[in-house]
Amino acid sequence: MKSINLGIQIVPKSNQLDTYSLVDKAIEVIKAAGVKYEVNPFETVMEGPEDELMAIAKKAQEAVLEAGADEVLVYYRMQIRKNGDVTMDEKTAKHKQA
Q: 97 vs 23, which has greater pLDDT?
C-alpha cells in the first residue's frame, strides 16, 4: 500500500476542561497506533496508508470527545500521490535542526 501524509488538527471545545489536555488524548491515540508521525504546534502529521490513517484520525477525535470535550472541530490536510509514496522526510529533512 502506498503512503500518504495526513495532517490533522483537532480543536476541542469545553467550558470545563483544559483544551491542551484534551488534544493530548488525540496524540496518545496517534502515538499508540504505531505509524510515523510528527507533532507540530498547529497539527499532527501522520504517514502511512490512507485507510489506516483515516481510521486513526476517527479514533483520535472520538478520544477527545470521550475525554470530556463538548465538541470538536477537526481539520484534515492530505497529500496523495497517484503513482507513489508521499513522505514527510522528502519535504522536511533538509530543514531539521541537528
A: 23
User: What is the grid cell recorded at 92?
Assistant: 522536511
> What pTM was computed for the model?
0.92
Which positions ≥6 away from 20 have C-beta within 8 Å? none
What are the grid coordinates assigned to 8, written together? 490533522
The closest of 95, 91, 78, 93 to 2, measured between CA atoms, is 78
Q: Name residue 10's beta-bridge partners.
A: 74
When pLDDT is averaged across residues 70-90 and rounded to a whole number, the result is 96
Would you say 56 and 33 are in contact if contact means Cβ atoms under 8 Å apart? yes
What is the DSSP pairing of strand 36-39 with strand 44-48? antiparallel
Which residues sit opposite 74 in a β-bridge?
A: 10
Quick check: 98 pLDDT over 80?
A: no
